Amino acid sequence: MKRNFNLLKPLNPPPTVWDKVYLWFIDKARIVILIAELIIAFAFILKVIEDTNAKNKDKEIEQLRNELSFYGFEMEPTFRNIQNKSDRYILIWNNSSKFSDSLSEIVSYLPSNISEISIRFGDNEVGVYGYEDLNSIRDLENALKTSSNFSNTKVTDLTLGQGDVIQSKGRYSLTADINDYNRNQL
């Protein structure tokens, strides 16, 4: 048998209409598959980014929960205690009088070597009781009468004993009305 070698390019028959449609369909299908693969690759990259963000958010949520539980169990009682003290202070301040200013003023008028004194505050009245030199009592009475914070100042009780008259000392009771004893509200 004899063998024949054909070194020429094979010639294809001219394409038919169906061959043209088939080739057109295959070319378009390749483009569609390429676009689909690009969309899948893009979606995969977005999914990886979203998963990484979700993992980071989970870590952040866990960290914030730990911080919140720390504040909730360890710090919140301290904050509540401070808040309650502040509320009580405001309540006490708003419901109290400013007797401390009046007390400071009365003490500033008293001599430093005073032997016995008792100061009592009423609603809008102050009483000073003690055993002292009569000149000191007179000075205290005059100072309270000239003060703008007090009115109706008078020595209501003055008791002198036999030995006290010689020393010019005696028991006294001095009362005065406080003009404005209410504090400004906080």
What does this protein structure show overall?
The chain contains four helices and four strands, in the order ααββαβαβ. It is α+β, with helices and mostly antiparallel strands and 186 residues long.
From the structure above, extract its key features.
4 helices; four-stranded antiparallel beta sheet; single chain; alpha+beta; 186 residues
A few lines on this structure:
This protein has 186 residues and is α+β, with helices and mostly antiparallel strands.
Q: What is the gyration radius calculated from CA atoms?
A: 51 Å
Please give the order of strands in the largest beta sheet: 1-2-4-3
Mean pLDDT: 82
Beta content? 15-25%
Detail the poorly predicted runs.
Answer: none
Helix content: 55-70%
Q: What is the ordering of alpha helices and beta strands?
A: HHEEHEHE
Assembly classification? single chain
Shape: rod-shaped
Estimated structural class:
alpha+beta
Largest sheet: 4 strands, antiparallel
Q: Count of helical segments? A: 4
Number of strands: 4
N-end to C-end Cα span: 123 Å
